[in-house]
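Aim 2 progress. For Cell division protein FtsQ, the working sequence is reproduced below.
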Amino acid sequence: MHQLIDKKFKIIIYLLFLLILSTTSREFIENQDNYFFKINQINIEGLSNKDNLKIYNELNILLYENILSIRKKEIQKIINQHNIIEELSIKKIYPSTIKINIKPTSFIAKLSGSDQLVGENGKLIKDKENVKVLPYIFGEFSSKDFLIFKKKIVLSKFNFDNFKMLYFFPSKRWDILTYDDILIKLPQDNISDSLNLAYKIINSKDFKKTTLIDLRMNNHLITRK
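Predicted structure tokens for this construct:
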């Protein structure tokens, strides 16, 4: 009887030992996993060293967070505050690295009376170091206004390299001055067709030395030498 009790006691002790060991092992593994998946490196490429560093400093709040719980949208929200961004790709490299590649927007115009440039993305970017010759834009416009107009230009035979100045009016109408000093007055609608007509007139022998092409009225063409 005594031996039976000793045997039961040993079994209980053995089971308790296994329980303690399994609990400790599980906690150790969980702690290791948590440490293993902590973000300890953020690599940013694509912009100038200065801009890369600026964005890196803003993303520092993500360091030592669990890489599994961080959503890419959180990172995009921080980076997209910078108007210079055209495209963005984010990769999680497990266990602990985030790699970010940024494509900066191209500058296609200057805002008159300012050190701000207009990007392909329609946003304004401050850049005092730019030396590229760009057309000036006059008037107050939104990114939406500009992107709509840019799309019309892309669909036409013109490109921004042909323009010296662009004027935006409160009526949401655009005028263009070419590098040949020809002023094109565009209507509010049918912009691509009007641009193509202006292009045809400029390259026609019948309209040599034209300085003004007024297309504001439907089915009416006014030119001036």
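The radius of gyration is 32 Å. This observation will guide construct design in the next reporting period.
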